[in-house]
Amino acid sequence: MSWKKDSVKNVNFHKATYTASYGTSAQLPASTGPEVSFVGRSNVGKSSLLNKLMYRKDLAKVSSTPGKTATINFYDVDGADFVDLPGYGFAGVAKSEKARWSELIEGYFSQTRAFALVVCLIDIRHEPSDLDLGMIRFVQDMNLPFAVVFTKADKLSNQQCNRQKSLLKKSLGLGEDVAVMVTSSEKGTGIDELRAYIAGIID
Ligand SMILES: Nc1nc2c(ncn2[C@@H]2O[C@H](COP(=O)(O)OP(=O)(O)OP(=O)(O)O)[C@@H](O)[C@H]2O)c(=O)[nH]1
Ligand SMILES: [Mg+2]
Predict the structure, then answer these.
(1) Sheet-wide strand order for 146-151
(2) What DSSP line would sit under 63-77, residue for residue?
(3) CATH homologous superfamily of domain 16-202?
(4) Cα–Cα distances in Å, from 14 out to 46, 48, 68, 77, 117?
(5) What's the predicted TM-score (pTM) here?
(6) Distance from residue 155's CA to the centre of ligand 1 (Å)
(7) CA 85/CA 42 separation, integer angstroms
(8) Which tens digits make up the pLDDT trace of 159-178?
(9) Within 6 Å (CB) of ligand 1, which residues are found?
(10) pLDDT tens by residue, 138-147
């Protein structure tokens, strides 16, 4: 099921509140509005990006220790649900914890929900990992509407960012039809563009 553009007329990103966290996919309530889901490896900057989008410093918990977000966290942004998913591919956690995380992520996406947009985060500095490639293949195979957001652009020069952007697009096999944005939660780069893109989809 995809969200149909009818009920949300405008998106005020300042109207953001924390809704709830869930530790198993069975606990997830049915969708109440269009869902914008944030996925990417642990430490890529999902929670930081959410805070930036919502004009908040610490509504979503950020940590330099990978694996900070171990539950699916819902935020209400002016009637839309922004969903912070746990990061995949964190080597430091126990097998049982990893299994719980994949259950959460796969369980979430296998439900009938109002998936409006999946924001796939990838660190602009590195070659995509197998898990990054798997994430893109997964959203493509599931026919989910998605956009790719490169994070931590402040760590590179503008020239390096442009170079990495085209290299990564190529290695991820992204066609020209896929929205690709370069962002920095540190500097605010690309945040307005991403807000406009999200609003254009759920508005
Ligand atoms: N320089 C820089 N650092 C960033 C940026 N975004 C996030 N970080 C840092 O990267 C680390 C991880 O950020 P989080 O937002 O917690 O990452 P996450 O993807 O939510 O991580 P998990 O919850 O473990 O999946 C923190 O130390 C952030 O301060 C950015 O745009 N620039
Ligand atoms: Mg997080």
Answers:
(1) 16-22, 72-77, 80-84, 35-39, 115-123, 146-151, 179-182
(2) -SSTT---SEEEEEE
(3) P-loop containing nucleotide triphosphate hydrolases (3.40.50.300)
(4) 18, 16, 24, 8, 19
(5) 0.92
(6) 12
(7) 10
(8) 999 999 999 999 999 999 99
(9) 40, 42-48, 62-64, 66-69, 86-87, 151-152, 154-155, 184-186
(10) 899 999 999 9
